[in-house]
Amino acid sequence: MTKAWMMLAAVALVAPTVAQAQAPSAAVLAAVADKARPEGDSSRDGARKPAELVAFAGVKAGQKVGELLPGGGYFSRILSKVVGEKGTVFLWMPAGMPADRIARYDPLLKAYTNLKLVQGEQLVAPEPLDLVWTTQNYHDLHHTGRSPDATNAAAFAALKPGGIYIVSDHAARAGSGTADTDNLHRIDPELVKAEVIKAGFVLDGESKALANAGDDHTKKVFELHDATDQFFLRFRKPAK
């Protein structure tokens, strides 16, 4: 048995948990409805279902959140509003990113003052986090040759006991592992579960809000955009 399949077999020992949808709070609904959000973001809400997903993650006012690879800031803006003035969202970008790419975050950081950009080999927050979040980017840890194991270990170390780790991405064919991370920008969700559980996390829930049975997993995500079949996984750092 290969190492990859041994990892997948370990996941099979974890009871599957498909949680019921949770009604978004008034704070979450207000964050999504915020008129300050770019039209390019809000126009995607029907497909990306941010209110439902942020509610499923359990994001609350006052929390300290780490967002890995925040992309264009779609969820950064929403998370910022939900955690509020007493909360903080640390946006992690790897060390060595081009200066012009990092500079793109300046307007976002000025508009949302509780967003803090942190750069380093891995996420290191100045205080224990309640939640770590990454969406549509986990496959890039394989695609760009970074270490998913190191990233998951950093997320585990940054979280408080009982803290939540959210991982969502475009689903690849069952059993494909990392075969499609480069060409299709997809990843097998069972491999993701195995890698995150190996870091010490427990699978705590799975939302099917972004599942799409009409996606046959053969197209690049850029052809389908937000209409891909996506997984949304909630992991928990054990309390002890």
UniProtKB/TrEMBL annotation:
The protein's UniProt keywords, in alphabetical order, are: Methyltransferase, Signal, Transferase
Q: Which residues form the signal peptide?
A: 1-21
- Cite the InterPro entries for this sequence: S-AdoMet-dep_MeTrfase_Alr7345, SAM-dependent_MTases_sf
Query: Which SUPFAM superfamilies does UniProt cross-reference here?
Result: S-adenosyl-L-methionine-dependent methyltransferases
GO molecular-function terms, A-Z: methyltransferase activity
BP GO annotations: methylation
Domain of life, source organism? Bacteria
* Protein name listed in UniProt: Methyltransferase
